[in-house]
Amino acid sequence: MLICQNIQKKEQSFYNLLIVEDVVFTNDALCTLLARDGKYKLSQAYTFAEADVLLSKNQYDFILLDLHLPDAEGEDLVEAIQKKSDAKIIVLTAEINIEVREHLFYQGILDYLVKEDDLLLLVASICSTIETLEKNRQDTILIVENSPTTSHQLQNILQLRNYNVVVSSTTQEALILLESLPVSSIILEKEFQTKDDLEFLTALNGMKKIVSVPIIVLLETNNPEIIRKALKNGASDVIQKPFNIEEFTLKVDMFVEIYRRYIDSICSQKLLSEYKEAIDQAAYVSKTDIKGKITYVNELFCRLSGYTQKELLGKAHNIVRHPDVPKSIFREMWHTIQAKKIWKGTIKNRKKNGQAYYVKSMIKPIVDLNGNIIEYIAIRTDVTDLEIYKEILEENLNISNNNLEYLKQYEEAMDEFVAVIKTNIQGTITYVNNNFSSLSGYTKNELLGMNCKEFRSSQHMRNGDCESVFQGLQNQKSISILFENLTKEKENYFVDTKIYPLKNGKNEVVEHLHLMYDVTEIVKVHEELEDTQKEIINTMGEVGESRSQETGNHVRRVAYYSKKLAHLVGLSDEDTELLYSVSPMHDLGKVGIPDSILKKPGKLTEVEFEIMKTHAEIGFNILKNSKRSILQTAAIVAYTHHEKWDGSGYPNALAGEDIHIFGRITAIADVFDALGSDRIYKKSWPLEKIIRLFKEERGKHFDPRLVDIFLENLDDFLVIRDHFKD
Final residue of a domain: which of 481, 502, 518? Predict the structure, then answer.
């Protein structure tokens, strides 16, 4: 069941955590490192006797328990602690004893961690476990099990990890529950000896309300034919009974997290679709093919132009062109969009009945994977009233004093839909109309005497926009600009602004007239569309990484490394931001690699490595057919980031500058982060060793110029690495 409303997380401001560890250095180091997180109220004990005293006085959420204390140890120690407290126990030990480990999980511990040289990794694992438990409070797991004993055991295991658990003893009851119960996973114990069992599994997968919900099947048999049937009929995984509790909980957590991210992605796409619908209802939209023939118009465009959709489709846009508009404007527009750039401007058009109307337009070329333009999309806002007012003013600004009353009548007529202020040449407001007062949140009395700089956003001040506008007005030029202003309550709003210099009889500028049209809704919809698209990409990237148990910070670091290197190389701001947005999806294709290969702790065999290499092409195939330029670019990155400068890479053995610059940059970012991070199959490398590899692979694996720039600016990349630590 898809639920996309925002869920308020019930996170505690802190957790009471007791560290029971007899080695003073380790105890103190754990306390110091955990304190940095700011979530924990920490207590320390060095013996069971000290822990006993603290447990009698305080309540704890979690206990970090060394398995070997001077006065107690092993399973007896855990049992003694459990009698004193309901806190969840994370065992710390220097030994790996498989038998003891399994017994302790049956005894009800939360986790079993082996103390390593790197305490940072240990603390990161502890914090990650606690964060996972908090997220689990939002998730419900349905157990379909007719054995009360097994059902009770599963409930205890899952509730220890903060899952909400619902139990159904029959398949019929389960199907009824799933009609209204949103679940994040289903645990199913069936032996699949009968046709009914398989039909039930098939029925689960056919329910639209639980599409993609992971189903974990528990089987007593290891018969490969039955396992095959279960998987073929929709099981996400099969676990043989009696099962290892630690393996079971890890798989449940993994499948639930993948489902969470799937739901996040679907909800983000749904939100994006709603934003698109909002634009379709608020703006005038059309699309054309590469020859300029109209292929799509929305209802608002038809209403504004007076033409039906049938009359417009297949026609060139000159069907609405007004003869007053110089051909040079359309030549400049066509030249801009054919150069794959966005064109922005105001156009005077003609309705079917001959009347003129004005639209503020943005025309964007849409390109395919190879960079070829496949269509153009235009989004417009109707600014007819504002432009007519501008024409009236331009015709009458130099009229005599006898006609000022005539001008005032026009001003009053436009007052309801145009925001107007007048300022002296220093920018101090001398007149304001009701519309601007309402828009800004200030009263007229508050505005009079203010300088217009006072409600401009800081971005305009940093960019020097106000100074540029002032200089243009002093040169007696009319200025067009999109201003971001701040209301009295410091909320931002956007106004399409035209400023006219008003002159006296001596041709001297004596004041400035500001005409403003509120375009806040359109601007914010565009911003939300971009943010949502980036969120979808990051979510999809994290889904790929979660399969290989890499952290979300890996994709963040790769994104920021790529952005920094792109900037240093001299790519345009637009290309730099585009690469930053899509680089998180470089390993999306890993969703198609089997877990047995993706999560193998040792070296891959030759056959396994060949399968692993297919992730580049899988990611490309997932993304290549999108019509969105951002996803087409993501396809390029996924396809090329494993190519090598000398032609020895994969999947296409491209060499040199035949490899897209985005792929070359992402390759450096990905390898730098991978080598410096712990993975399931290796430990992180020291920085000196990483630098040595980049120098050795300069001109072999990596673009030599990019390597030089990267190493010359290494400190900048280390700052990013330290900021986004796992």
Answer: 518
